[in-house]
Design brief:
The protein is globular. The chain has two helices and two strands. Helix 2 (38-53) links the parallel strand 1 (27-31) and strand 2. A two-stranded parallel ribbon has the order 1-2. 39% of the residues lie in helices and 13% in strands. The two termini are 19 Å apart. The protein is of the alpha+beta class.
């Protein structure tokens, strides 16, 4: 895992709590807001990549379908 010194001091305690919780999971649901935009889609994908590198299975979720202008992006349901 990355060095804790890379995380701004203000966020370190919460980051450590989050890391501890993730360590205990094998599967993680990553959800985005409805009516996805490019930022939300990129965040979903980035989170999935990071989780995969940590040995986790990520399931990506949004309550709405990809908008037409983003349908060229082909994301797997599980990473």
């Amino acid at each position: 895992m990355a060095s804790i010194e890379l995380i701004p001091e203000l966020y370190r305690e919460e980051a450590q709590k989050m890391a501890h919780c993730l360590d205990q999971l094998d599967q993680v649901l990553v959800a985005a807001h409805a009516n996805l935009d490019g930022d939300a889609l990129g965040s979903l994908w980035a989170a999935a990549i990071i989780l995969k590198q940590l040995g986790k299975t990520a399931t990506l979720y949004s309550s709405t379908a990809l908008p037409r202008h983003l349908q060229f992006v082909k994301l797997p349901a599980k990473v």
